[in-house]
Amino acid sequence: MKNKIPEKARLLEKLRKNGFKVPDFIYVPADQFNNNNFTQLDSFLDKHRESYKVIARSAHPLESEYTGGTFDSLDTYADIGGIKYARNRMIKIAETSKWLSIRRQQMFNHAPQIDINEMGVIVMPFVNGSSVMAKMIVNHWEFGYCRNRSHKVQNEPHITNVPHDHRLLKLSEDIQKVLGFRCEIEYIIATDGEIYVVQAKDISNIETLEEKESQHSIKLDGIRRIRKRRNYRERPVYVMDNKAFYINVISQCEDFVPKNKELKPDINGIISSIKAYEKELESFALRHQRFAVLGFSIQDSSELYQIANHYLEDLPDLQKVLSKALHTNLYKIDIFLAEADTLIAKDKFRINLCSHDAYGIDTVRNPLWSAYWHVDRHDKVVKEFIHLGFKTGDTIGIDIDAEDRPIISRH
Questions:
Q1: Cβ(302)–Cβ(246) under 8 Å?
Q2: pTM of whole model > 0.85?
Q3: Is 356 a residue whose pLDDT tops 50?
Q4: d(Cα 192, Cα 189) in Å, to the nearest integer?
Q5: How far apart are CA 383 and CA 391, in angstroms?
Q6: Bridge partners (DSSP) listed for residue 223
Q7: Alpha carbon distances (Å) from 261 to 255, 265, 311, 314
Q8: In angstroms, rounded to a whole number, what is the distance separating the alpha carbons of residues 60 and 64?
Q9: Rounded to whole angstroms, what are the CA distances from 162 to 135, 182, 188?
């Protein structure tokens, strides 16, 4: 690790060489502290004595493997003693208050083991101003504003897609283009309006939740709900495909018709498969207090239903048994659907609300939602759900955007 230049120092040097406004800085590796070799640091500080204060930024060789903010940066005096104090303080913080964070990242994020005494330091003149963090999320830039040190009354940190200065957007695009990868950039906006780049971090290998959701989510066309309190919910989902169910019944009927007319046909196998489906619905409803139904096909297979219902007309006694079982099955499906608080289906279907369902006390905590896609998109949307692997038992999230359009994601 001794010869590895930290990403923070390496990228800042690259940006400085490419003409970006980076404050003057020096990287001081751990071995210079261990050997008390401060010749270069002393020369650097000589140029900035008038500042009285500098900022010492953590620069461990493996720091880029950890989340931003794991290691500290400190304001300190512009002399050797101040820099040594700042480094010792960084190490102490990493060994105490940040120890749990470091261990958790090693356990859950597979961050490498580190020798904290290899901590190097980047020293740069202190720039008075506000901090802005910029990064591209999916296909848009996001700017996070922190406090302005020079103001007595502080603003809360906030995020926007529209920076206060259009130069920030152009700068961010240019920096990312020069570095050649998706990055998180930290700026200091000085009190005179000058924009300084003080850090860049490679985030190309970090998957954000929004990116992950965009790859595993589908945007639908609308949602119906009487009570609008929250714009997000998660539910276990039952994927209902009654078209496939009826095709399976018809297939069993084809296999069922005996080739030898002297053999007495046994319809129990078909009836058992219908009852097994009903038991599956009941079991799912009893496992989950609240759940969603994703309707690939609910009651729109009337043609297939009729085919299945009349397939055994040449065997009237058995056809009567099958017809009764299928009719009962429709009733059981309806009972199951009535227990779902979230229906996701094409626009043709909606939850039939009585006054209690729409306005009752239970809806205060648990309002009914009916998310839908337009009928003309039905085949395309169903194929998309199948392609993304949505299946019964998954937990899905429904996020309603500013346009009141639901985005369905699988977790």
A1: no
A2: no
A3: no
A4: 8
A5: 13
A6: 371
A7: 14, 9, 17, 12
A8: 8
A9: 12, 19, 17
